[in-house]
């Protein structure tokens, strides 16, 4: 067994004994995993605040922040019975978990695309939090993995105007959904989804809102300070900033939807081949430790898939 472990600024593949499934556990051999750039970059630089260590802990994490730590949560593998499954497991080539930790990947979803399930799940939860309506004028500020998936889901709502705001050109990624990436977005938005992880992006989001508009904040800043101007139009326009975090099912759905239901929905949505555009690179697992610093430091990429 090999697994990726990190300390601030460094990564290594660590070998260990192959896991032996306990009573009721399932052995899974990894096919692919995905690098969640924003969160894993935060962990890699040691930026998880001590006060948030418990909330930031991944389901099958080993070690404590800032490290050494085995971290990650976008894993697609195959069971001994031959079933392809998604699991919130770190970058490791073989592992044993309870069956309740596994979500079957639908037959019409390629395993290589299924690594996006956790990201699409985050986007689904954000839309549940926001409650976009037919015809809404919406902006997405920040076109990373989460921002692109949010824009993709929004594009299928009838009559909506979706604009993506990002200094990087995401036209090739967003074109299949008919979404535009603009430098000078129209204002008077009903909703703005913010995913850039920067103070400037949050300020831009507020500036784009119309009266009674809302920013849905998906960014995770870690220990970085955030500064925005709450004078000017913030109070007269009665603007709102609302956090959306995938660790809880959105309140509007919590009474009827569980975590497994939400993840199963995300996987069904990934039957759409347009999501392949969100995976912009692939790396063999054997080279992951060596290439991780460059991957996390590259601002232009989206999801990097790890092939086992």
From TrEMBL:
Keywords: Metal-binding, Oxidoreductase, Zinc. The keyword Transferase does not apply. Pfam families: NAD_binding_8 (PF13450). Gene3D superfamilies: Medium-chain alcohol dehydrogenases, catalytic domain (3.90.180.10), NAD(P)-binding Rossmann-like Domain (3.40.50.720). One of its GO terms (molecular function) is metal ion binding. It comes from the Bacteria. SUPFAM superfamilies: GroES-like (SSF50129), NAD(P)-binding Rossmann-fold domains (SSF51735). Its cofactor is Zn(2+). Belongs to the zinc-containing alcohol dehydrogenase family. This is Threonine dehydrogenase. It comes from Pseudonocardia oroxyli. The lineage of its organism: Bacteria, Bacillati, Actinomycetota, Actinomycetes, Pseudonocardiales.
